[in-house]
Amino acid sequence: MIHDGNSPIENELDLQVRRAAMAWLDQRCTDENPLVHRDELLNDFYFEGTRLPLVDPNRGIRKPRSMVAALSILTTYTPPGRRSPYDDAPAQDGLLRYKYRGDNPQQPDNVALRRAYERKLPLIWFYGIATGIYLPRYPVWLIADEPKHLQFAVALDQAQLFIPHNAVLDSDQRRYVERLTRQRLHQPVFRERVLQAYEKSCAMCRLRHVQLLDAAHIIRDSHTKGIPTVPNGLALCKIHHAAYDKNVLGIRPDHVIEVRADILEEIDGPMLRHGLQEMNGLRLSLPRSRRDWPDTRALEERYEEFRLTA
Fold this sequence. Notes:
This is HNH endonuclease. By secondary structure, the chain is of the alpha+beta class. The chain has 2 domains: 8-191, PUA domain-like, CATH 2.30.280; 200-309, no CATH class. Helices cover 32% and strands 19% of the residues. It contains 8 helices and 13 strands. The strands form 4 sheets. Strands 1, 4, 5, 6, 7, 8 and 9 form a 7-stranded mixed beta sheet that branches. Strands 2-3 form a two-stranded antiparallel sheet. A two-stranded antiparallel ribbon has the order 10-11. It is elongated, with a radius of gyration of 22 Å.
């Protein structure tokens, strides 16, 4: 049953559930542990003493019976090298799109999303990091319905609410919109996927303090080929991330670390000796799954850059 949302009591209850769900996620997801498991989303949130799943067991759109509109949307994790069944991609206005369920705009889940759009209600977007593990992004808003393309336009940030739908943006405007998307979604998703693949450990020194780990790009993110995918990433502690970015050290295509010759000759304190010089000749610690290993061509290209500066 899809509620028409005309009752003030229903509308107020809907907003209360949204606020409570987001408050629960605020407590559950910390900077150190921002991810949530599917079982938690299905079983651990209660509203006024009643269990209320935040995701649907079988679908990507969740609308509880008690609510007038959809509460959450979900993007399933797709392993590297496989094509996603849904392409939640940006359009000419720089905004992301979320695909309908199926090809019928009147399908109940699509109607539930449309009600969220019409009422400007905030939703939660659960983005797949690994199988059954999600990074919540909230609040997000649907700001346009595009039945011709079977999709909704999504704003990830309040600033994106003011982007005209399907506007042809100039280069500065588009960069601004895309920067917001990177900050709110792509960069956090890239970080969490890389850290999951490397089991929250620096690939060089094995440091396991999550607060001190980064997801480093092999091909730089400013490059057209610097895509935010696990095979173009490395889990590195902040010192080794900085050293890699500045070509203080490099990684050969066979996963062996090289330290620049002038750095090896320097005499300094224990950080230089143990943190950098002793990395020379060591092999990277790689993910368990081979599909998550660094892309060989990316390593070759980046190693050549290091070699020319060494």
